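re the bet — no i am not wrong, look at it urself. input seq straight from the record:
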Amino acid sequence: MKLFIPIVLVLCIYLSGTDSAGLHGKSAIFSTKTDTSFVSFDASDFSSLTAFTVCISAASETTRNYALFSYATSFHNNEILLWQQNTTDFWVEMQNLQTKFFIPEMNALLKHICVTWESQGGEMTVWVNGRRSIRKVTGKGWAVKQAGMFIIGQDQDNVGGGFDKGQSFVGEITNVNMWDRVLKPNEIALISQGCYSDGGNIIDWGSTGFTAKGDVIIQDNNDCSI
């Protein structure tokens, strides 16, 4: 008699933050334009950054300008700012210096967006769903300052505040992670497919403590692929 043993193949496993105060398996839904709704993170401390990768999955049907990710310090209110203009113009602002990338149209479908930057050569790249943009040069020799506040959904005009509802995000955000290095292309590809087990070492969506304010709704995202 032949014995048939069923085989279960699991392609993607995400372990980080499963028993933590983080947002593993969750999405933050910003339902309306406000100057009060945001999510802040208790990010890991660092002295300064000479490289980083920020990844975020987001969807929005908004056609005006809006902020996705904001890091403000006492030195610069826009130490790092990721914001969208119209539906295809994506801006990365560092210490108030703006760099523009033309990306696929932002719409109701979740897109995975990563930004990488390193100080030595000033190379900055945007990745959308695992595919990279052209590389640009900005902030050569710079360092990102420490002791600031990380927020999604609003543009900080001062640390932790100064919000403008005309720049607020409306839509859904999930899987926000930040590293203190430039991730390799294969790592970004795996992350975009939901197949990378480690969250960021500065912000880990699965384990980093967070505070949701205003009308933000935290819900299960019900999708292991994002």
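see?? The chain has one domain: 26-219. told u. also Residues 26-219 form a domain with the Jelly Rolls fold (CATH 2.60.120.200). so pay up
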